[in-house]
Amino acid sequence: MSIKLIxxxxxxxxxxxxxxxxxxxxxxxxxxxxxxxxLGISVPTLRAIAKQxxxxxxxxxxxxxxxxxxxxxxxxxxxxxxxxxxGNAHIKKQCYDFYMRNLKYVNNWNLVDSSAHLILGAHLADxxxxxxxxxxxxxxxxxxxxxxxxxxxxxxxxxxxxxxKIARILMHDxxxxxxxxxxxxxxxxxxxxxxxLRAFLDEYASTMPRTMLRYAIERFDAPxxxxxxxxxxxx
Length: 235
Hints:
With about 240 residues, this protein is mainly alpha-helical. It has 15 helices and no strands.
């Protein structure tokens, strides 16, 4: 009944056509989101619905996370992240284990970016983090993105070392989605310690992908941006 109820609510919450809902994703055959389907529900609406189902069972979340519809998987992750944040140590471990068992369903950039730091990053904050190295070296695009986005939690705790460590591993990743993700996390790290970011860029700006560099220096003043872009041009 829980699943029937939530899916009925989702159906009533559709506001755009599936084609329009997919406009921020590359869904054409052979592209990274070719596997995905969309209902047409906005993210704010999904977040509001998630707040109504914070006690959803992991069994029901399993049904949602396996859905072919992006919004249902995203809703499952919103609920799971909320349960992790509010739960005791036992619940946090259950949520983390659920997340790791279902990584194959965290398979689009919005799903990764809404969960990796809040669940995986949060859980590894005071633990061995070598799992991130394994994920960063994965052949699976989404696992590599999970590795770098997970470090966002550490950044918020003023621990930048793992962001730079994973960025080095992913420096020459061939996928544009990774260039954006790594550059984004480097920029976030720079908000906490610009000197560390500048030192990193002094070493790597000439060889990192252009998109990654542009994301990383987005908050710099014009002279600094020009400096690093010139380093790139001089490679």
